[in-house]
Structures are given as C-alpha cells and as structure tokens.
C-alpha cells in the first residue's frame, strides 16, 4: 500500500513539473538554466582566483623568509620539535592540522610576542587547508556545523584574518562570531578580501588584547563601567521595569576633555548609575593603562538593540532633542524597523525655560519608562540629573547626535571605517569647521593627558575593581 502511495506521489510531481514546463518558452527555459548555473560558476571562479592568489603570496613570503627559517632551525634545539601541530576544522568541516612554532622558551616567547609563531601556517595555505582571508580556524567541537548559522562558515576555507577578529579589535563585535562569519561568506569577493586585509593594518596597530578586564575602569578620574553591549542593554531594560530613577552616561574622548575642565560635569559622571565607554579613544586609553575595555558601548549602536529588546514590553521610549522634526523622524524609523516597540512621545530640543514645565509634564503623562535626551554634552546630562524625578521615567540617557543619524539628517560612517576605529575621521570630513577642534586638538589633548596618567601610575592594574556590580 505504501509503495503505491509513493508511486502516485512521484507521478503527481512529474505531471505538475511537465505542466509548468509546457507553458515556458525556449528563451525562458534557457534563461532559467543559465541563472541556476551562474551562482555555481561565480563561486567556482572566486574560489579559483582566491586559491591562486593564496598560492602566489604564500610562496613569495616563504621565499623571502627562508633565511629566517634556516637560522631559526639552526639555533633552536631540538629543531625537530620547533613546529607544533594543532587540530583545527576547515572547509566542509574537514579536520586538519594547523602548523605553528612552539611558544615556550626564550625563542618561543619572542616569536609569540612578535606574532611570528604563526609563520608555519603558510604551509597550511600551500596545502589548501587555509586562506589568508576567511573565518577563524576553530578547534573541533567549538562551532558545530550542525548549527544553522555556524554551518555557513564551513563553505569557505578558514583564514588568518577574519571579519570577527577585525571587529573584535575595534571593540564592535557585538554579535556572535558565527553571524560575522555568515556575513563574510554571503558577501565575499576578491575586492572585499583586499579591503579586509587593508582594514587589518590599523587594527593590528591597536596592539594585542590585554587579559585584565575589570568591572570598572578609572580613566582621567572618570569611573567607567566595563560592560559589553549586551550587558548594557540588558541592564537598561531591567531598570526600565524596576521602580526608581537611574541615569546613564556615555563617555568618549571629548566627554573626558569636558569633564577635565568642567567640575560639575565630572561630579555628575561620578554619581551616574551607569557610565559607558564610547569610542576608540577610550579603548586606547585603557590599553595605555594596562587594562582592557570589553566593548565600544556607544549610543548609536546601542539604540537599535535597545529598540529590539523593548519590543512587546509595557514600557516605552520618549525621544527628546534635536531640531524640529528630527525626533519625529526617529519615531518613524523605530516604527518601520521595530513596530512592536512603543515610542510614547517625542519633542524637539529647542524649547525655552518657560516651556520646560510643559515638556516635563508631557514626558510624565506619556507613560514612557526610558527617556533619551539629545542636547549635546554636557547640557543633556546636566539636564537629566536636574529633571529626572520630574520627568517620571525610570531610566534616562544622554545620546548626543544619535537622533541626527537615525532621522537621516546626517549619514553615519560606513561599516568598514568603523571596523578600523576611524568613525571620527568621517565625522571630521562631514563637518570640518565644526569638528576640527574636537577631533584634532581634542584627541591629541586627550591622549596627552592619558600619557601623563600612565606616567603617574606605577602599577597599571592598581585601579582594577573586582566584583563590582551595577
């Protein structure tokens, strides 16, 4: 009986297929065949070109470094044990052995410090186990190919430089590694790989990651809560559902310069419930002090994640600031991208002191639990501290120019510039007359002050605070 049913199903499928094909013209049939093969041909051509490039470059590098190899093997005893093999998972989830130099002993420690211990990996490139650009070569069992998202990474060879590594160095690796790998696989091209390799140069200049990541940092006398983007969003959402009023501040290099000369603003930052490190300047400052900032928790990247987390919740947002019409445009953006997130109200930032009581009354009656204020630093933060209770919200944050980006008034720097930690260069390019003092004079002033603090900090980790909680 089951065999008869199966036969009937196959006949029905064949009949439907014949009927569909019968109505197609020869030109349409040819077009469909060409389209079906185009993707496979494109992938094959890309893979062939990339493989040829990897072979040529690896042979050139091996030839150029051959004297170094010979000298190393002469002074390293026993030479036979200089190279170690580590199990890794490559293309099509096939296991292979990755080569590297030992990192123990005087020579090994030198190679590791200079990042030369990966040099034998050129042999993996020659063998076709790896490429120069591609997802990270993971250990067996680390990212299972059974996972739907992680499975995409195994369509290509692993590489020395990957998109995840690049974003991690810039402190903007907010999503899971497998999502970055899938993004790379879907958009890979020779030009894209070349651009990724170029972006890796400034990322490498940021230096190696430092193991010390305390719960709080102290930079130029400013306390910064050292949390990830996910932890910051989770904290704000939790506070929005808990009784009380709390203030969130974002601190970048410009904010630190303002706090240096504005005692009132500096005192406010010390009292804030959550102070978040924003920008590459804070990362470099932490590294100079022997510490590590976990992530670049800036308001522009936090906002869409906050909107996503607020979907379907009883609380909502109130948008305050910007030019007339800007906050309303941000509301339209939220409605288009996160329709289940409530925006309880909005108001521009050009109101007079006489109109302020009406604005506060409007916020209080809106039922919003999270207030975002875009007045600029330090005005927005001082205004929040003064009016937090009167506004009747549970969480308020100063977000600077965030509304201008999401309203479309000012375009944000492209992703590739953000991955290089150069978003500030794009802002300087957009408004050189307004931003030159902040970014050129301000950045050098900030780094100079950090250098002075480093000189007066004999123990880089003395400001480590363990067990601190929000």
Question: What are the defining features of this structure?
Answer:
about 475 residues, alpha/beta, 6-stranded parallel beta sheet, two-stranded antiparallel sheet, 20 helices, about 55% helix, globular
Mean pLDDT: 87
Query: pLDDT under 50 segments (min length 5)?
Result: 460-470
Binned, the helix content reads 40-55%
Strand order of the largest sheet: 8-7-12-11-9-10
Describe the largest sheet. Answer: 6 strands, parallel
Give structural notes:
The chain has 470 residues and is α/β, with parallel strands linked by helices. It folds into two domains: 43-205, no CATH class; 216-455, no CATH class. The protein has 20 helices and twelve strands. The chain has helices at residues 2-22, 26-64, 66-75, 105-113, 121-127, 163-169, 177-187, 190-205, 229-240, 253-261, 263-271, 280-288, 299-309, 326-337, 356-366, 379-391, 402-406, 415-419, 423-430, 432-455, and strands at 83-89, 95-101, 131-133, 159-161, 216-219, 222-225, 246-251, 274-277, 317-321, 343-347, 370-374, 395-398. The strands form four sheets. The chain has a six-stranded parallel beta sheet, sandwiched between helices. Strands 1-2 form a two-stranded antiparallel sheet. Strand 11 (370-374), helix 16 (379-391) and strand 12 form a beta-alpha-beta unit. Helix 10 (253-261) crosses helix 11 (263-271). It starts with a helix and ends in a 15-residue tail after the last helix. The relative contact order is 0.09. Mean pLDDT is 87; it is low at 460-470.
